[in-house]
Amino acid sequence: xxxxxxxxxxxxxTVLLCSSASVFSQQxxxxxxxxxFDRYRKNVPQEKIYLQxxxxxxxAGETMWFTIYLTDGSFYQPSDLSKIAYIxxxxxxxxxxxxxxxxxxxxxxxxxxxxxxxITSGNYQLRAYTNWMKNFDEAFFFRKTITxxxxxxxxxxxxxxxTITRDAQFFxxxxxxxSGISNKVGFRVVDQxxxxxxxxxxxxxxxxxxxxxxxxxxxxxxxxxxxxTSGHTYRALIRESSGKTTNAKLPAISEYGYTLGVVDSSxxxxxxxxxxxxxxxxxxxxxxxxxxxxxxxxxxxxxxxxNKAVVTVDKKDLPEGISHITLFDAAxxxxxxxxxxxxxxxxxxVSLQTDQQRYISRRRVTLNLQSTVxxxxxxxxxxxxxxxxxxxxxxxxxxxEYFSLTSDLKGNIENPxxxxxxxxxxxxxxxxxxxxxxxxxxxxWADVLNPKTPVFTYVPEYRNHIIQGIVxxxxxNPAHGILTYLASPGKTIKLYGSRSNSRGEVFYEMQNxxxxxxxxxxxxPKVDSTYQVEILSPFHDLNTPQVIPPLSxxxxxxxxxxxxxxxxxxxxxxYSEEQENKSRxxxxxxxxxxxxxADETYYLDAFTRFPVMEEVMREYVPGVLVRKRKDGxxxxxxxxxxxxxxxGTPLIMLDGVPLFDEDEIMAFDPKKIKKLEVMTRQYFIGPxxxxxxxxxxxxxxxxxxxxxxxxxxxxxxxxxxxxxxFYSPRYESPAQRESRMPDQRTLLYWNPQILTGTDGxxxxxxxxxxxxxxxxxxxxxxxxxxxVGTSSQxxxxxxxxx
Length: 802
Description:
This protein is mostly beta strands. It contains eight helices and 50 strands. It has a five-stranded mixed β-sheet, with no helix packed on it.
């Protein structure tokens, strides 16, 4: 027996060693998955952008003030990736009505949009994003609905679709319906406005047998459980109280596959139930991966016993907000995904305390702020808005809802504030239904698992706004290797150059480029005369249709509308000059030309004026030698560094626009030239190299009527928005309070950035106007360690004689 047992023991040892090697290999797969995910997170950073406006509704003729928070997608720290934000107001047809570009610093920016009298009454989408975010799904962009009413025209209710439609969708938990496995199915039924429908539902098979009855819990959303069988087809019958019925198919049933179920097993834990139906040859191994905001929570291998496995997760290990739970098969292919929401418990809390609850007109309001998290003081970056409440549409998306919930969900979320009202069992169930029906992720697992970093179309704007164009040949094909020039005519000389890449793309990084300006884009017609440059819009043009609720104004709002419209017009009549002065435009103005201090500068008014440019150059500009040959004039610049003459044509510019033919400038009227500058050195700017620079500036910086080359493109281009300062009067003395100048402000105060101290405290002051009524204070912000929060309070203003 002892002799015969040796081969048996060797066999058992071999099996154990092979099993251990298999387990080790599989665990390496789990570790590799974690490493790949972490590599992707570092190489493909995610941004999260949030915009808040001063109030939820506006009149045409008012100014909408807004502020922007841009953070990383994981820890809500200020993002340093992008320095430019794009803001748009879109109409119900997804067409832009207003657009602007905002400079960001340390993840913060603010701006304003004047709403012109040409805008029509309706609900609009306010959208914000960065150039980098354009590489990903448009659903990443910030969106919120605002109401704009034009009181200069009769406000008509928006036309609604005459055909009543229903959109019924069904979402198996984890993503799959697998034959023979009981599974939860989430459903969502909404009307053409995106509003949830109340109904009774019936799950039927192909024989019209009723298998399950179901009804929505909230907003047309709910779930039911059933066990599908392959070879059968299933449909849902939706019946409303009006008698309207809708039929919808369920997703296809798979013979083999995996299901993933998540339940709250206790107040402190969740259970993740994995079930598989697979051929006998399949390895009974799966991988479970959990992350929240790309922060890895867990990555582990699980053996299936009887085609099942259960994983228990402590809720304390899950970050607040939405966690993504993904299941991979033995070949590390993603097969199931589920979202789980953990209610935030450590939101930023901002206490508001006014020195009174009631005020009279033109009196100071002192507001004390204190920011805390879980009872501990926290310095924070806050915004404050104070506006008059009325009966107009007033829902205002807030930062807590956005960061912890809606920014990580796809599609329109009806009444998101409901999910934060309480933590009752009904709200918890409604939240879980929301996770079932709006689940998605911000990336593709194929990109994560690919060892190569994805190639992106849009570059992040690390420093400045980038103008992008494309160079094409006469046949319309992208042209490679063409040197192009972009200039903005003006008294301050700026020039940008770019050589087209293999896709014909050119990029110009614009430094200190603010306000509405003209730009001239061209290639050198002497070298690349057959090519043309087209400038592309920096705004996103793939507008996914969004459900915007139709405008609905109650009759009780008519008086409020009239009062507010009159108040707005009074302010415009009496305070337009003050508002223009106080709301002054400011920007870091760079008056130095791109080449710095010129080696030679000539103000032509200081010299005898000659009628032709040739005499000016020969008599007054020793640094430039003018030679006239058979083919025309030629400029040669002295190389003062090497005490030689440059062999080549210098860069010749008029108001910053390159000229490529000396004959053109020599034919120009010298009386239109105010200043001439010369660089008697070799100059480099990006891919451009010049043997000296000769720069002419007209009196107005507008080219003075000079005719550009036919293939040059001259166009208006809006640079970054110049910053405006909100105007708020002060009534510190009796004379100021007793002034007969009316004060009809309904927006009393707007401050896009208030920083609380290390004790979390800050104090602000503002003054009431002559408009009585209830006013709302809204404060939002983010602490320096990434906690977001919002708070609000009201006070009353009475007339001064009360």
